[in-house]
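Lay summary. Proteins are chains of building blocks that fold into shapes, and those shapes determine what they do. In this project we predict the shape from the chain. Here is one chain we studied, written as its sequence of building blocks.
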Amino acid sequence: MSIDENTAARVAKLARIKVEPDALPALAQEFNGILGFIEQLSEVDVEGVEPMTSVTPQRLKRRVDNVTDGDQQEKILKNAPDAREGFFAVPKVVE
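And here is the predicted shape, written in a compact code that computers can read:
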């Protein structure tokens, strides 16, 4: 696939990037270079290769998932302008 100046101008417009008309040939050439790299990557045989999260094998960091209520209800409600029965009280907005 090849990108011409008209396509480069359209891509720039869709990306909301102002490109001067004299810079369009260089932009089209840069797009073609990127597409060339993508074509090279599609030629690589990745059959049987495990997906990686990093270049070095490592286990993802994990923590114990303990459910807590935080025990901060009184502290939080102390800052509220109006609190009732352990909840924020707000004016009614729906009739």
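What the prediction tells us: The mean pLDDT is 89.
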